[in-house]
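Most newcomers find our protein records easier to grasp once they have seen one. To make this concrete, we reproduce a full record directly below:

===
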Amino acid sequence: MQIEINRSNPKLSIIIPSYNSAGTIADCLSSLLNQKTERQLEIIVVDSSQDQTPRIVRDKFPQVRLIHLGQKTDQGSARNIGTKTASGDILFFIDSDCIAPPDWIEQMLAGHSQGYSAVGGPIVNANPESLISYAGYLLEFNDLLPPKSGMEVNHLPSGNVSYRREILEKGGGFPAASGYYLEDLLFNNRLSQTGVKMWYDPKIPMAHVHRSTWRDFIRHQIVYGKSNVHLLRHTRMQGAFIARHPYLCLPLLPLLPIVKFCRVAWRFFSWSPKEFFKHPLIFAILALGLLFWFYGFVRELFNLS
């Protein structure tokens, strides 16, 4: 279906993939309904929850379009379903455990007005009082810590991004990756290969509620390790040789968590020396998380799971 795009007053759609989000979906939707904008927003929740999420959306947010799926659906597929039903010229993506700042829509549109087809901003930690949450945040988003000024990048986080519809269609939509994360990296890698320029703006922060229990933290790191292998096998990103030739690299594999730890620590220090020295205990949690990340990485690398 070909949709005509009005550049001066584009239609706007917000798409939220959701799974068991009863604890966070209300805050997420409230932040979107309280945007400081006079533009009409279409909000779509693509949900495959087994908890009370769909009831919360139906009862408390009747103005939100709910697409409830009968079985658990990966985030990439959920975003694609939302894209197909959305009427917007510009599509905004936010995760169900995120809280948007009041000027999120207008700041995103400011980036698009500069000629960029893909615009996003940093993810910030919504619950930094938990060291587990803080460590999970650093492990997942250390390469996208808030910069001092806007810049062109080749990747934008899926929980804080907007695309012009024609770019989404050009990229073929988000890849379905059941059981894996990082489908947004796969998609953005595909876009960057075609020359699409992406704008990353520190004035568009998105608060993300990170996992704060040991069980959730460890599970996430294991899946995150598996997802890294899946990503590297489908791209030419740094580390792809290891994913494709694991036995040749076997002697070097034990160095991976050490290298990753040093990289995360350096980026953390470069971003905020004050924060770096403020939380010394966080480095023990980072190291533990990386051990479980390495466990997931190795299991996927040698098809042990």
Q: What stands out?
A: The radius of gyration is 19 Å. Residues 214-301 form one domain. The first helix runs from residue 25 to 33.
